[in-house]
């Protein structure tokens, strides 16, 4: 679910300044940044909620598709029986804290994906997904310079970035298999065998 849809309000409208958000987006790869630093930077940029009635728009559909890609990259591992590394687990939990309350996923949406925390085979597709995230946030900010948002002005550009990003991610993932962390794949012949009935 898109963050604005969950909140039922516009979250990227112009406050006093957008600079903290823009600067943080570039510099947030610093591993020493705390959750409080991230929250302060994004909070300063987003400002108070809007009084304009909220309306769903196509940017929210694109954001939803982005979350699906981010989930695939962060949930799965690339080898059978392998668990997530500590860094991979942390990145997954930051993106998907298990709650939609208090706009819990808005802060991750505004920060760089930690591609180095992912399995090596996932990193190329993750770079494409990160580019999509950056463009999505930039488009939200540009669209909400005045409300209601003028998303039509920016939609073609964002759609082109998403189409290119999906193509790059698909190409980079061509020979990559996905496995649930810590689970071994059942052999096909085991799956086809009927279960034995217990004697009655």
UniProtKB/TrEMBL annotation:
Residue numbers spanned by region Disordered: 16-42, 181-200
Biased composition, Acidic residues: where in the chain?
28-42
Q: Which domain of life is it from?
A: Eukaryota
Q: What is this protein called?
A: Uncharacterized protein
Per the UniProt record, the source organism is Scleroderma citrinum Foug A
């Amino acid at each position: 679910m898109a963050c604005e849809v969950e909140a039922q309000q516009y979250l990227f409208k112009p406050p006093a300044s957008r600079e903290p958000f823009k600067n943080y987006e570039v510099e947030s790869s610093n591993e020493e940044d705390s959750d409080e630093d991230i929250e302060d930077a994004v909070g300063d940029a987003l400002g108070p909620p809007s009084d304009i009635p909220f309306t769903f728009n196509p940017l929210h559909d694109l954001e939803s598709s982005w979350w699906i890609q981010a989930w695939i990259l962060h949930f799965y591992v690339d080898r059978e029986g392998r668990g997530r590394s500590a860094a991979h687990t942390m990145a997954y939990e930051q993106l998907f804290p298990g709650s939609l309350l208090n706009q819990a996923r808005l802060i991750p949406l505004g920060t760089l994906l930690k591609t180095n925390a992912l399995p090596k085979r996932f990193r190329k597709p993750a770079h494409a997904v990160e580019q999509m995230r950056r463009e999505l946030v930039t488009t939200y900010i540009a669209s909400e310079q005045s409300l209601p948002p003028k998303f039509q002005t920016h939609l073609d550009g964002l759609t082109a970035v998403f189409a290119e990003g999906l193509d790059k991610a698909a190409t980079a993932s061509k020979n990559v298999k996905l496995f649930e962390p810590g689970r071994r794949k059942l052999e096909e012949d085991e799956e086809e065998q009927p279960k034995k009935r217990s004697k009655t």
